[in-house]
Amino acid sequence: MIARLFAIAAIFTASAAWAHITPPVVLQSERDTVASQHPGAKKLSLREVTLTPDERKAIQANYGWRPQDDIHAFYMGRDEAGKLLSASVFMTEATMHGMIRVAVAFTPDGRVKSAELVEVSEEIYAHIKPLMDRGFTKRYAGLGIDSSFEPPAATASGADALAQHYDSIVSRMVQRAVILYNVGITRRGVT
Predict the structure, then answer these.
(1) What would the pLDDT profile of 84-108 be if each residue is shown by its tens digit?
(2) Cys-Cys link to 113, which of 104, 105, 175, 183 (CB 3.0-4.6 A)?
(3) For residue 87, which of 75, 103, 79, 78 has the smallest C-alpha distance?
(4) 3-class SS at 90?
(5) Looking at the DSSP assignment, which residues form a beta bridge with residue 47?
(6) What does the pLDDT look like over 118-158, one tens digit per residue?
(7) CA-to-CA distance for 162 and 141, rounded, in angstroms?
(8) DSSP string, 137-171
(9) In this structure, are strands 112-121 and 71-78 parallel, antiparallel, or unpaired?
(10) How far apart (Å, rounded) are the C-alpha atoms in residues 54 and 40?
(11) How far apart are CA 49 and CA 184, in angstroms?
């Protein structure tokens, strides 16, 4: 029995040696991000959206993505009369080099108003910083459910292979946010 416990402990120790956890680089707080994505909103609320089994199946069939989270939290910005002005959602993805967190803001009709990288690991930051310096997330503004989210092909701009990889991940995250907004807000008639 003791030998078995030592073997299990050795396996966990070996696993921990392979894993590397890098600290996060918080580029912008959630509070500051929400404030910047909802200018002019007089009322701000949090709307939790739970996808139905049929909605999950439709997303997988139409977009090839299977949402893992049960609840998706949307910040909803409204004017004094209660009219929807904007919405936003935070998307997080775990990669082998750490987490990436993106905030995506929407116009009421479901088009991307803005997308912001709000948190990455130190390791990812080193690779994606040149893209951030060029404002790579600005290209998402105006995209909707039927838009292409493919990042531009690698150019002579000097972006390394990992930067291109993370660019693709961020593009996929923004597209998934648009899908969630379309299915969980627009199709449900939330106004």
Answers:
(1) 999 999 999 988 888 999 999 999 9
(2) 105
(3) 75
(4) strand
(5) 74
(6) 999 998 898 889 889 999 999 999 999 999 998 876 654 55
(7) 24
(8) GGGGTT--TTS--PPPPP-TT---HHHHHHHHHHH
(9) unpaired
(10) 35
(11) 6
CB 73 within 8 A of CB 47: yes
Cβ density class 139-152: b for 16+ within 10 Å, e for less: bbeebebeeebebe
**C-alpha of 14 from chain center:** 32
The one-letter amino acid at 69: D
The model's pTM: 0.84
pLDDT tens digits for range 2-49: 555 454 555 555 444 445 567 789 999 999 999 999 999 999 999 999
Burial of 13-37, coded b for 16+ CB within 10 Å and e otherwise, reads eeeeeeeeeeebbeebeeeebbeeb
SS (H, E, C) 109-146: CCCEEEEEEEEEEHHHHHHHHHHHHCCHHHHHCCCCCC
Do 32 and 26 meet the contact criterion of CB atoms below 8 Å apart?
Answer: no
Residue 60: phi and psi, rounded to 5, are -65, -40
